[in-house]
Amino acid sequence: MTSLMLHRLPDFLLVVLCGWLGVGLLVRAPDNRVTYSFAWFCAHMVLYGLTSIQAQLTESATVALLLGRLQLAAAVLTPVAFLHLMLLLTSSDSRRRLPRLAAVPLALCYATGMTLALYALFFWPLPVAPHSLLPWTPWGDLQFPVGPLRWAAVAQQSVPLVLVIGLVEMSRRPPPETALDRRARWVLAIAAYLGVIGGLTAIVAREVNVSPALSQSIMVTVMLILIYTVLSHRTLLPSRLARRSFLHSILVSLFTALYVVLVLVLEWVIGEVLDINTPLVTALSTVGLAAALGPVGEWLRGQIDRRFYPREFDYRRLVQSFSDELFECGDLTHQLQSGLSSICQALEVQTGLVAVATPDGLVTRASYGSNDFPSYLPPHRAAVRTPEPAASLGTLDAGPSGYPAAPGG
Q1: Mean pLDDT calculated for residue range 228-255
Q2: For the chain, how long is the longest CA-to-CA vector?
Q3: Is residue 397 part of a domain?
Q4: How many whole angstroms separate alpha carbon 29 and alpha carbon 51?
């Protein structure tokens, strides 16, 4: 069992990374075509990884056969999903739409892949692999029947990967405009080439019955590179807000994993020392987590924003201060005064004014830092406080609405 888990550990890591990364990106940018395609690719990787692990861990031959069929179906569809993702990532269209020329071979690959997947799931005969003495596959791996169908399955898995290579090379021909674009293209090309190498290695490993650890380790590296592109080159996530939220989820997930590991270790230590089987540490840690989850999460997000997103940190602090002041005040006048005071203090502004435009002019509603603002300002006039009585701020030229001001007017 230990040897089996060592060989299948990359599969497990790939399932965790693809599941978390695919869902994490999809919920933060559900309307983005590239994100949707990436989640689709991750779903295939999760299905392939889960079935490859569970098919070898089960003790039932019937369950192993069913999971083996699912794994075989995922094996012929995953390369097509990878090609679909790379087509969108390398598209020159600002809306990331598929070119018509590329949609035809992609649809053909999907059609042949679905045909082979349906055969793997529902049709017979499919050779049942006997019990194997190999440590990574005690039940053996299912294969398509020897002959044209086997060659069709190999071509179905290989051709999309070869197309990805040509696609990446074609996308690199237009020279990038900036150094950041050039670096992003190189990172994307490295991820694509590693993905192709990992896919071809997996095909060879399945055909000659060797350990899948190498191919899956390469795919884990690809997923880590894609995480880097999300954070550093704005790939897959279209907005700063989504990337910030994704970074929050990464670090919070790491802290959560460390917390779980700490709880498990303490549970084992307490059980050994006190010789008890009661999950005492788990129960107490659950209560503590429920009580501290909100404040600790807010503190952690604040520290992340302070380090990586100082602008959002300042805005967040301003909004929090503004909200606290408003909740403490009742009527509109006091709320305006408190809100203006909070904004001026957060922005380190010495004076501030809130005025309402009326047909007769501007009416002052709240002020900060000075009491000599007039309560009423006639139309077409504005109060400008200068640093010194004789200071000049420049010349203001005004004219009729919709026309440029005449020189000297």
Answers
A1: 62
A2: 97
A3: no
A4: 28
| pTM across the whole model | 0.62
Residue type, 147: G
* Separation in Å, CA 76 to CA 51, 307, 344: 14, 44, 61
Instruction: State the alpha helices, DSSP H only, in 209-239.
Output: 213-233
Are 160 and 80 contacting, i.e. CB atoms less than 8 angstroms apart?
yes
Q: What contacts 24+ positions apart, CB below 8 Å, involve 138-142?
A: 138/4, 138/56, 139/55, 139/56, 139/58, 139/61, 139/64, 139/68, 141/68, 141/71, 141/206, 141/209, 142/65, 142/68, 142/69, 142/71, 142/72
| Helix ranges, 275-331 (H) | 280-308, 310-328
> Is pLDDT above 80 for 201?
yes
User: What does residue 209 show for φ and ψ, rounded to 5 degrees?
Assistant: 65, 60
- Sole residue written with tokens 């002019």: 361
Torsion, CA 86, CA 89, CA 94, CA 95, rounded to 10: 70
- Asked which of 287, 308, 329 is the last residue of a domain, the reply is 308
Taking CA 330 as the corner, what is the angle to CA 324 and CA 333, rounded to the nearest 5 degrees?
Answer: 100
Residue 283 in tokens? 């129960």
**Residue 156 identity (one-letter amino acid):** Q
In this predicted structure, what is the pLDDT of residue 407? 45
| Residues 145 and 254 both lie in one domain | no
Q: How many domains does the chain have?
A: 3
CA dist., res. 409 & res. 403, Å (int): 12
Q: Token digits for 352?
A: 């501030």
Could you give the CA distance from residue 252 to residue 407 in angstroms, rounded to a whole number?
59
Structural domain harbouring 177:
2-238
Sheet holding 352-358, edge to edge: 352-358, 361-368, 376-377
Where is pLDDT greater, at 142 or 307?
Answer: 142
Q: pLDDT for 163-173, tens place per residue? A: 888 888 877 66
Q: Scan for tokens 């309560």, then name that residue.
A: 375
What residues contact residue 89 under an 8 Å CB cut-off, 6+ apart? Answer: 34, 188, 235
